[in-house]
TrEMBL record:
Keywords tagged on the record: Chemotaxis, Hydrolase
UniProt-listed InterPro entries: CheB_C (IPR035909), Sig_transdc_resp-reg_Me-estase (IPR000673)
Protein name as catalogued: protein-glutamate methylesterase
EC number: 3.1.1.61
Domain of life: Bacteria
Organism whose genome encodes this protein: Ideonella lacteola
A Pfam family hit: CheB_methylest
Domain CheB-type methylesterase, residue spans: 12-207
Lineage, opening ranks: Bacteria, Pseudomonadati, Pseudomonadota, Betaproteobacteria, Burkholderiales
Positions of the catalytic residues: 29, 56, 149
Catalyzed reaction equations: [protein]-L-glutamate 5-O-methyl ester + H2O = L-glutamyl-[protein] + methanol + H(+)
Length: 209
């Protein structure tokens, strides 16, 4: 394991492991586009991470997230589709009005189950399902947002042995979501966007070998 990855795996909430991260789950809401624009370009060509992202979106408006982020990202950017196998080196956005889950395989699953914290897609749903599949090989990140979605899911990632990170509330456009996540999962590392970007770079280098 590289020195860079060793530093990443030493984060609070991360269980000791011999292998690098395999997946990253990110949740955000208000202010999330700007936060993601600062983070996602940190993932370099050659990274084999699978990245799953929930952004709270209006249910009846087509998502423009893939159009926004494809030009910014070295990884392949896709809107998640039901029953598609998870591919390494790919970044998946949850589509509007569907929960995004990770099923055994691993493969993507979309659900129209009721909204969680008034949101579909919900961050909790993604994090809990990804924790079941990836366990200690998952990095969960809660960014800026104005609800408590993501707090319960981040705790599930921690309990499964994954690494857990929260954007510093002082740097978040909407601090409520990070604050709820910290209260629910005090083991999480609280980092600025700049430091989260460095962590993603370390995790990506480890995933690339």
């Amino acid at each position: 394991m590289s020195a860079a990855l060793a530093g990443a795996s030493a984060l609070p909430g991360a269980a000791p492991r011999r292998e690098p991260f395999r997946a990253v789950a990110i949740g955000t809401s208000a202010g999330g586009i700007d936060a993601l624009a600062a983070l996602l370009p940190c993932l370099p060509t050659g990274a084999t991470l699978s990245v799953f992202i929930v952004v709270h979106l209006p249910p009846s408006v087509p998502s423009l997230l893939c159009d926004i982020f494809r030009p910014k990202c070295a990884l392949r950017v896709m809107e998640a589709e039901d029953k598609c196998p998870v591919e390494p080196g790919t970044l998946y956005f949850a589509p509007p009005n569907y929960h995004l889950l990770i099923d055994p395989g691993p493969q993507l699953a979309l659900s129209i189950d009721p909204a969680v914290h008034f949101s579909r897609p919900a961050i909790d749903v993604l994090f809990e399902s990804a924790a079941d599949i990836y366990r200690q090989y998952l990095l969960g990140i809660v960014l800026t947002g104005a609800s408590e979605d993501g707090a319960r899911g981040l705790l599930a990632v921690h309990r499964a042995g994954g690494a857990v990170v929260v954007q510093s509330p002082d740097t978040a456009m909407a601090p409520a979501m990070p604050l709820h996540a910290i209260r629910r999962c005090p083991e999480a590392a609280v980092l600025t966007l700049n430091d989260i970007g460095k962590l993603l770079q370390e995790a990506a280098r480890g995933s690339a070998g």
